[in-house]
Amino acid sequence: MKYAMVTGGSRGIGRAVCVKLAQMGYNVVINYVSNDAEAEKTLAMVREAGTDGEFLKFDVCDYEATVKAIEGWQAAHKGEFIEVLVNNAGVRRDNLMIWMEHEDWLKVINTSLGAFYNVTKPLLQPMLRKKFGRIINMGSLSGLKGLPGQCNYSSAKGGLIAATKALAQEIGAKNVTVNAIAPGFINTDMVEGLNVDALKETIPLKRFGEPEEVAALVGFLASRDAGYITGECISINGGLYS
Ligand code: NDP
């Protein structure tokens, strides 16, 4: 049995990634924090894709809860390991810096960057021992370019991309690759409330991306074919920024 874990797998990009990995033959460990109904839909789609899945519900911002959940999974799956980790959970709390609440600063940093530590750390040792692993971190265009109103989000994603590059160098010798993806605007709940028509005009491909298009890239980075790619951040943004 091959296992993959996707954080924030209940909706949006995470859901499409769960389905993609299921199509590739992975049993998918679906993490999310609150939305049980949407998580159920993801699990049904994973099963339709031909494998199985299970929930591991925890708040990726909470180090103790994360370690407890992952150690519980490991204890229940002796001799098996999660060989693909997709650090995908993320939130937006946009505001100009001058008005940004401290709570919104911390929430966004903890959900992307703090979670990278919380989730990756307990899953790393089995990958190193088995000498195989794929870690894929969901960055953002915002983490490469910086976007106004997103000092928190740009910092979180920029930090995540830097951590990707650092970790890749630490563990490459153990055949574990670490890469990041930097999506532009993708049609999910996260882009609700944005001025879609105006934004589309700024994108060379004149449309937002679909979660499945991001999932296809995750699938490639998780595959054996991507074995010589590590420490990279790959943009998928319709030509918006390169
Ligand atoms: P959505 O808002 O559609 O989904 C977010 C997911 O993250 C949900 O599954 C949610 O779970 C989960 N989540 C949020 N907070 C936590 C937490 N504390 N612990 C565990 N799970 C959590 O987002 P997208 O699919 O759009 O985004 C996925 C990733 O892609 C994010 O990292 C985002 O920053 C990044 N991204 C998205 C872009 C876009 O345009 N959509 C562009 C660039 C990057 P629940 O359902 O339980 O709330």
Give a summary of the structure in a few sentences:
The chain has 242 residues and is α/β, with parallel strands linked by helices.
Structure description:
The protein has 242 residues and is an alpha/beta fold. The chain is 46% helix and 16% strand. The protein has helices spanning 12-23, 36-48, 63-76, 102-130, 141-145, 151-171, 196-201, 211-222, and strands at 3-6, 27-32, 53-57, 82-87, 133-138, 176-183, 233-236. Helix 3 (63-76) packs parallel to helix 4. The longest helix has 29 residues, at 102-130. NADPH dihydro-nicotinamide-adenine-dinucleotide phosphate is lined by residues 7-14, 31-35, 38, 59-61, 88-91, 111-112, 138, 140, 183, 185-186, 188-191.
Q: Give the tally of β-strands.
A: 7
Strand content: 15-25%
Number of helices: 8
The computed structural class is alpha/beta
SSE diagram, text form:
Elements: E1 3-6, H1 12-23, E2 27-32, H2 36-48, E3 53-57, H3 63-76, E4 82-87, H4 102-130, E5 133-138, H5 141-145, H6 151-171, E6 176-183, H7 196-201, H8 211-222, E7 233-236
The chain binds NADPH dihydro-nicotinamide-adenine-dinucleotide phosphate (NDP).
NADPH dihydro-nicotinamide-adenine-dinucleotide phosphate (NDP) binds at residues 7-14, 31-35, 38, 59-61, 88-91, 111-112, 138, 140, 183, 185-186, 188-191.
